[in-house]
Design goal:
The protein is of the alpha/beta class and 295 residues long. It has helices at 11-20, 38-51, 64-68, 97-106, 132-145, 163-172, 195-207, 239-248, and strands at residues 2-6, 25-32, 57-61, 115-117, 153-155, 227-232, 260-268, 271-278, 284-291. Helix 1 packs across helix 6 (163-172), helix 6 crosses helix 7 and helix 7 (195-207) crosses helix 8 (239-248). The protein is globular and about 50 Å long.
Amino acid sequence: NLSIALISGGLGPCVTAASAAREVQLAFLHLNYRQRTEQRELAAFSALADHYQIKKRLVVDVSYMHQIGGSSLVDKTMLVPERDADGDLPTTYVPFRNANLLGVAVASEVSGATDIYIGAHEEESVYPDCRHEFFKAYEEMIAAGTGPQTHIRLQTPLIALDKTAIIRRGLELAAPLHLTWSCYQNTHKACGKCMSCRLRLAGFLCAGIKDPIPMLNHAATSQSEPIKGIHHNPDHTSGAFLKELTILIGYVSDERYIALHDVQFEISNETLHIEARSRATGEIFGTTAKQWSGY
């Protein structure tokens, strides 16, 4: 049976497609809503579709989301934030976006599709339409609102993973991570400052590999990376840990996250052990990182 994969061009959809392609026949669906990086995301979608030799592809214009506005991703009069909002949804939240995207995918019931794959992950996301409970409720709505012959399931294979785990899963599946694009605002070189870039950079950092996409020089992909092979404590996989760990070893310059104290370093057998306490929460973070050989 045919399955539909929602492919924006980011890491999550790429790894989701890599996983699903091993089990089902896929059709790729991409939606343009006049976001800032629309053409770059479309190029990533096409590259991923070519990589997986997808024959059935559909690109749908949902630019009414731009008309509605309310998000810095579609409204260029709003600034894309380079730090997280305190207690509020960031301006990069596109109101009810996933519900709209899924609605288009479900409308493809005429194709006979039985499963819809989406690369959302709840672990680090602040967006309410990336939560497991949202997808569970949406699946119930599909059952109530489609014909009796339609039986569509929502597949969210990455929902419980953080960015590092997603990248590692992608490496295991030989997913073409170099074809993906995550930046909210740039189309040639990723900015390295928006929330999406920072989470991506921290994920690659903790996975112990360099991000393969072009990044502006101030970002975490400088040519003089001093640390290789981050292995973070599995008990601390939150986005806050990743961002604060990134700051701790000096990759991202964002004063909002320079809020660590009681930092302790210990080097033994060419391995750097780091422990720090969050000034905001008192939580202790620990990690182990191998140095570059010969550094």
